[in-house]
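Example record

The entry below shows one chain as it appears in the dataset: sequence first, then structure tokens.
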Amino acid sequence: MNTIQRIALLLTVIGAINWGLIGLFQYDLVAGLFGGGEQSGAFARIIYTLVGISGLITISLYFSRAAEHHEARTADSTE
């Protein structure tokens, strides 16, 4: 896993925690920290965008792991 993928994974986890807080307590941590409680705050919108892009990047981690797993199973069955 390279550095960009690690950062993307971290931001995706932060986004998931934020959604959990929204769902459980109706508290948006990102907006509270960076937007003054408003989801329309400029910096909060940047964070939301980065989390969204990170989610797309982490999809590639899922497929690369699945490909590695498939290759390992194929190698084991040919031996």
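Notes for this example: The two ends are 28 Å apart (CA to CA). Helices lie at 3-25, 29-34, 42-78.
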